[in-house]
Amino acid sequence: MNKLLLIPAALLLSTAAAAPKISAQSIIVNPTQPDLSVSVRVDKDSSGSQNPAYRIDEGITVSTTVNRDAYVYLFNVNPDGSVDQILPNRLSEDNLVKANTTKTFPAPGDNFKYTVAGPIGQNKVLALASLTPLNLNDISSFKTAQDQFATVTAKTQAGLAQALSIIVTPLPQNSWVSDTAFYTVAAVNPVATGSLFVGTNVANATVTLNGQRLGGANVTYSNLRAGTYPIRVQAPGYRDFTTTVAVRAGSTTNVNVEFAQVVSPAPAPTPAQYTVSIRSGVNGARVFVDGVEAGTIRNGGLNVQVDRGSHEIVMIAAGYRTFISTYNVSTNGQITINPTR
Question: Which ranges carry the PEGA domain (predicted)?
Fold first, then answer.
């Protein structure tokens, strides 16, 4: 069973990871947009929008920031579905984070550290912030007086979401919020990787490598699998730049783009809209599309309008496990959801 552990510095800590897809949607969804905010990050991704890779036995630091004084609870969902409670724990019990400050785990000077270990698979770190302390006794507990970390009874992402939804249900909706960070762990024999620097002479340029958007320009991207890939650099008002780039193991490849030919502005096309019928036998269930509440299941269904592309569907209903899945929409269609209890 994969564990994210905190242990004294003389020992090692372990956790695991890997990742197919990044999603901005948190594991547990607040149906409102409270003025309380929380962010959780791992040390290789300060933006929170990427999925950095860690090698076996490499150290990792988790940080969290809130805009108001709040109690922060951290959980790690492992690839095998087990869940670890990172905070609070008996090595770092204080989980009150002051407004507009960042708390790291481990913090400088702590006598413990994190390292990562197998199995390979995607890990998700959930931060749940509340203006008042939460009682987690129903989902986690310290089994013995020697245990430094609580054991979480909930299993899988959906199970954790359902358990935490029950805990926060009595709270005012504007008093809690959550965020999720992702990271991966390389195989025991990691693949050869290199780095890519893309520089441009204009602001707001974006870089897409092998069909996957990396982010902005004038940035060095590390831990890229060695190989030859198509690259596209785009900037508002300029023609796209496309070429092929070779990422070499152990070195940095430089791509410098000089945008010169301005494209005449044109009205932005209206994205294609499709009607998706979400069918379920659980009347009264609440449906969220990309983190925004779309409506409630009535008479066995709910019709939603979405753009072409990938969308995350979440359905929450009392007495049922929270349903979370991602669908690629390219035409009108129907999605049937049968949540389990």
Answer: 194-261, 274-337
